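Q: Sequence in, structure out?
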Amino acid sequence: MKHEIKTRPILFFQKTNPPVFMVSALIMLVFIFVATVFTDSSKTFFNFLQHSIVKNVSWVFTLCTVLFLGFVLFLLFSRFGNIRLGKNDERPEFGYATWFAMMFSAGMGIGLVFWSIAEPIKHYSAPPMEGSAVLAPIKQAMGITFFHWGLHAWAIFMVVGLSLAFFSYRKGLPLAIRSSFYPLLGERIYGPWGNFIDIFAVVSTMFGVATSLGLGAMQVNSGLNFLIGYAETRFTQIVLIILITACATTSVVLGLKKGISRLSHFNLWLSLILVSLVFVIGPSLFILKTFGESLKNYISNIVYFSYWSELIASREWKASWSIFYWGWWIAWAPFVGLFIARISRGRTIREFILGGLLAPTFATFIWLSVFGGTALYLEKIQGVPISAAVSANLSTALFKTLGYLPWDQITATLSTLLIVTFFVTSSDSGSLVIDILTAGGDKDPPKNQRIFWAVTEGVIASVLLLAGGLDALQTAAIAPGFPFALLMVGMCFALFKELQNEI
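A: Exactly. Output:
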């Protein structure tokens, strides 16, 4: 059995897997050129692609997300749970606090801040289950939001992360997506098949991360508009991407322990301060009630939610919500999964799943209840037109809501800072993962290559904003997600097949 992928220098990049690095870079450069020169045509193509995927293959996303959650829960309670991701006597590299902070920051940071108010309000003001007796409007709004951000989402990340950690740390294979297919492809993972898998993972990761960076830029711009009246324009958002990408390259150069881990700790503490402050100054009792009822409704209706969107929801609604989320999470899966695998060496499978599935889901539900619950209270109880603000501009939802609470300048400043730091951690984590893949699975790839990919992420996010804004960002998330979902099904089968040899 081979244990490494052949690498060699290309120009000033010291260590690359030439087919993966060159083809991935070429795809990115061609996309940047075409979307920049043919902006209107690109926008039309993005709309067509989104419509076609939702119309013809949305059921694949729905079925796969259910399969992934079922597979992860099976492993959690099975005899395989005691298998260690590494040698039998190996212990984790990072403590629980650092591990959780990095995982949460990489996993959902920017998106959670962006959608935590916009989504519940959207579902409340225009109930997708209108006429259904299943759930009242507020319960329905929070239940659907919990569904999109809960166990299904983190199970997607767990499948990729667990597979990579097992084959890399337990079996001694490179930390690359191709390694997950060794039970099916054998030594062919080191040839064209393996290169194809890693190239696709790089492209998927790039567009998944670029989607988050675009959302982050839009919301930082809204924060600056709220705080100092700075205009919300595409030019401003692109400038923000440039500035924050520059900060991300600094974190990339510092590395995992000095850069990403410290910034992730900062993110975690800043998130705790912000969510605690909003809870205290907001409708605390209403938030607690919302959390309890929403959690109960989510658990009792999780099976219904799992198939409802495919059978009942309109095509337009699915494109904007469920299928967008499943595509986005799956497109992010190579990035988040590989990053989680990179920081999870030495943990058992059961520990990995408990820490990576249940803990982030619970923290996410708290965040959604505090911010979404506050917005729903203002809309329903106090008659504040939060829904009108959300309809006018999704990225302003957070700041419009904070504007109706005490200490709005403080909470808005903290929110803007948090979005920026989440922006940076998403960019530097994403560039680290892409560089690991294009450097043949090297766990500590050269810094100048990380800088190259960090800059490329920023450029693609800017291009997507120019080529269609939010619609283009959503399409960029969905498009690579569909074929990668099929690869993940093969990943589950290969992992189960190899785990049977461990018992």
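DSSP finds 17 helices and two strands in the chain.
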